[in-house]
Amino acid sequence: MSNNKKLTTSWGAPVGDNQNSMTAGSRGPTLIQDVHLLEKLAHFNRERVPERVVHAKGAGAHGYLEVTNDVSKYTKADFLSEVGKRTPMFIRFSTVAGELGSADTVRDPRGFAVKFYTEEGNYDLVGNNTPVFFIRDAIKFPDFIHTQKRHPQTHLKNPNAVWDFWGLSPESTHQVTILMSDRGIPATFRHMHGFGSHTFKWVNAEGQGVWVKYHFKTEQGVKNLDTDLAAKLAGENPDYHTEDLFNAIEKGDFPAWKLYVQIMPLEDANTYRFDPFDVTKVWSQKDYPLIEVGRMVLNRNPENYFAEVEQATFSPGTFVPGIEASPDKMLQGRLFAYHDAHRYRVGANHQALPINRAKNEVNNYQRDGQMRFDNNGGGSVYYEPNSYAGPTESAEDKQTPYAVSGEADSVAYDHNDHYTQAGDLYRLMSEDERTRLVANIVGAMKPVESDDIKRRATMNFYKADAEYGTRIAEGLGISLLEEVK
Q1: What family name appears in the similarity comment (predicted)?
Q2: In this structure, how many other beta carbons lie within 10 angstroms of the beta carbon of residue 307?
Q3: Mean pLDDT of 283-306
Q4: Is the pTM for the entire model greater than 0.85?
């Protein structure tokens, strides 16, 4: 279908590229001069009042992380500095697409957001129960989430939009395969793994860096829900996961996860067979084995849901010395978007709320704003530099540099193999798992009105594995002959 209308910004200027954010060279970082990206993300964060735009429905708990292995040669992060050290933490599990009152047992990724209250400030690791994501550039995030929400006229979920977007975004094939597999509906929050998903940078005391990925492995074992049972529970007990987590902790059955990392030398990023900053890809554990870090235990329920779970704010940009960002384009956008969402949803002083406030002393020159409930800095100096012994920067805590090159431009990732890892995952599955995967995709795609959208989406699965795509096409009663030629 032809479209003669130009996409514009909110102030009417035509948009030259709506698929790739502007970066300094092909690996970033993302440029703040990309006003279209900033406007999309800022407007997106303000589309719902007052619940979270995404991850609205969730449950949380308090606990601790205990270090079980010495990783100080990789990072100077104080909370990981010695075996046996315990750091208090708070976690929030969630679904992604549904509203605050939606059911827990729907097919959806689960948010896995952890706040560590370290002695050097808070560190947030804001991931999911999947190691990859649907897209790899933040400029596409508002559009993606719109497809998961409701049609503006009918106010109903819209499978046409879901599969149209996925079919036109082949980078989603890997994550869609995971979502439609048995792992798409965890049995409980306790019976699923967690991942930081993005690539981050660890830096040690000597200033030497490595790239890192986080894996939380559940000690309860991975368990998933049958599709029919999940649907039954959604009607009978829509708060099933919330209830299970609370009751388990209340009776002393404290859930736990082992934390592992994968470590990649900085120079390997230039030669690895997949771009290590592409969040739609995983690193092979044969290439970069899991290294144990610690054990996370949840042992205390919130006293008040609103004060602790609903007002908890997490951002992947909440770093501590020894942990830094990577050029991951999706991560780069989240560094802005999450803090901005919290300023809108909870307020400019959300970091001062008890659930979010750092355990160590906070010293800065931020003043005023809505709901400022402490002494607002009293009569102390309120600007910097100053001559009154106010807090000053510490050069030893500067983030380490990494080289960038190229022209300022809207640049795509260099690597566009969106199918190999999805196909590998399919081929790893048993025949029963493949059958359920195909049935889930066929069932989800059947309501789509357009055969063209069905074919386009199915071709992504065919390119991942011919049997995979063929079985879906047969289930949908469509032909791929023209597309396969």
Answers
A1: Belongs to the catalase family.
A2: 13
A3: 97
A4: yes
